[in-house]
Specification:
172 residues; alpha+beta; 3 helices; 4 strands
């Protein structure tokens, strides 16, 4: 009975397209990815590198060894006031974490040009709880960074390595 249920569950799960999340599987077997950033101290590039290493994707130590290169062009964290209280002080902020990135193959062909990933959160602010709200903002930023990394990796999974893709609508 248990065997039948397990078999049925396996068939249903595989039929719906569900799979474990991990390294992108659309790159040819044995190919290596090199991750670089315009900012040499990029925390985002380091985090993506660690995640992909632990998920088993072969990473190149140098661009010359790589079949594909992921370049993080820009990463930004912004905070803007969304609403103010009766005294004119901010009572709610919008937190935004963004990254612009591209992917090229070893021939220099762009597979993904200036793609952008954004994560938004709202933070309610209370001047009477500055310490706890500051900690809440720090925790939300960490969570936003993890979500941003997930979005970049999800986009890497969807790259068609056989055709150029442009994510920037302003590009011709």
């Amino acid at each position: 009975m248990l065997r039948t249920i397990t078999l049925a569950l396996a068939v249903v799960i595989s039929a719906c397209g569900w799979h474990l999340r991990g390294a992108p599987k659309n790159f040819p077997p044995g190919s290596k990815l090199y991750i670089t950033a315009q900012d040499p101290r990029s925390e985002l590039a380091e985090s993506i590198t660690r995640l992909l290493q632990t998920s088993g994707l072969p990473l190149a130590e140098a661009p010359s060894e790589a079949d594909f290169t992921l370049t993080i062009h820009k990463e930004t964290e912004t905070k803007r006031t969304v609403s103010v209280d009766a005294k004119g002080r901010a009572s709610e902020y919008e937190l935004i974490t963004s990254a612009e990135y591209s992917v090229r193959d070893n021939t220099g062909r762009d597979l993904l040009t200036m793609a952008r990933a954004d994560v938004y959160r709202t933070l309610e602010w209370d001047d009477n709880e500055v310490v706890s709200k500051g900690e809440e903002e720090r925790l939300q930023r960490e969570e936003m960074r993890r979500e941003l990394i997930g979005r970049i990796i999800d986009r890497l999974r969807r790259i068609d390595i056989n055709a150029p893709v442009r994510d920037n609508p302003a590009s011709p």
